[in-house]
Amino acid sequence: MTALSPAASATTAPAPVTAQTPIIEISGGAKVFGSFAALTNINLSIRDGEILTLLGPSGCGKTTLMRIIAGFEDLTAGSIRIAGNNAAGIPPERRPVNMVFQRYALFPHLDVFENVAFGLKLKGLAKAEVNERVERMLHIVQLDKFAHRYIDQISGGQSQRVALARALVNRPKVLLLDEPLAALDLKIRQHMLAEMKRIHGETGATFVYVTHDQDEALILSDRIVLMEKGRIIQIDRPQDMYARPRSLFAAKFLGETNLFPARVTEKAADRTVACGSSGIRFTTTVPTDAQVNAASVVSIRPESLYFHTDDPLSQSGEGTVEDIVFIGSRSFYRLRLDDETRLRIQVQNNSRLALPSVGERVTFYWDAENVAILPAE
Ligand SMILES: Nc1ncnc2c1ncn2[C@@H]1O[C@H](COP(=O)(O)OP(=O)(O)OP(=O)(O)O)[C@@H](O)[C@H]1O
Ligand SMILES: [Mg+2]
Question: What is the Cα–Cα distance from 10 to 91, expressed in whole angstroms?
Answer without folding.
Answer: 16
